[in-house]
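Batch manifest, entry 17 of 40.
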Amino acid sequence: MSGFVKIRILCAGILLAITGSTSAQTAADKTAAAAAEQQFAQTLAHDHGLAAQDILDTLAKARYQQSVIDAITRPAEAKPWKEYRPIFVTERRIADGTAFYRANAALLKRTETDFGVPAELIVTILGVETNYGRITGRYRVLDALTTLAFYYPPRQDFFRSELAQLFLLRSPSFPYAPDELMGSYAGAMGWGQFMPSSIARFARDGDGDGKVDLWNSLPDICASVANYFIAHGWQKGGLVAERARVAATARAVTPAGLEPVYPLQQLADWGYAIDARPDPMTPATLITLDGPDGAETWITFENFYAISRYNKSPLYSLAVYQLSRAIAAEVAAESTTP
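Output type: structure tokens
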């Protein structure tokens, strides 16, 4: 027997072992998932008055998606700020945002007036999250959430809660069948990428037609994003982030998170100063990023924390803010051009 044939036989045996092991594990997963689905349906029926069999019939339409598990378990690439910003804040993004702002200026300004959230921030979120509705997700939300709710133990409680909310969303104001909705691998939907719980809590009917349409109605989309920020503490006219001047004798500060917990005056006393002059008792915190010329320290405020509720990365929040300011500057420049 040649060495090549031996290798082929060995590989075939390994593949058979792997396949058998995978099939056995999948069977066990399916058994556990079926039991969990039964309990899920009974709990949802008991707590909210839905028909358990209707829930199970809908879950039976769901299809397990291995690519969903792959996507959520794939380690995110951690880039330093000096590499992240040039990818995120680009001339193309600024141009696209400016064009979208210009095309929808009346609606955006009306939304800004109604909610107090800057139009350019709404524009930036829509551009960053889905490229203005061009990339809203290729998964059935039912498939994604069922896969994560019953086949991803690390976050099964969260995704079962979101799956339950998916069943509870259907109403005259949100008249979409759970098995028809499309979204991201994590179950986020629409231009603003709202999870079911966010739709339930923050989505708004901006055009007054009695329905919330986060895919086709720009008034609904813009009002919902603005309301999301208001609900997460956005302060009209408040500061977002300011580059800090760090004294040579500055005290080392290592905040636990992005929530503003230090009075601005305290940060100043510790050696961190900014040019802006808000109330000295304004809550703030610090972030330090690896910039192109070394460490950058920023003092961030409640509005920065509100942005972070979309994505907990401080890089995301700062890039969104800087991109929004760049878009606003372009819009202002266009309006003053003769």
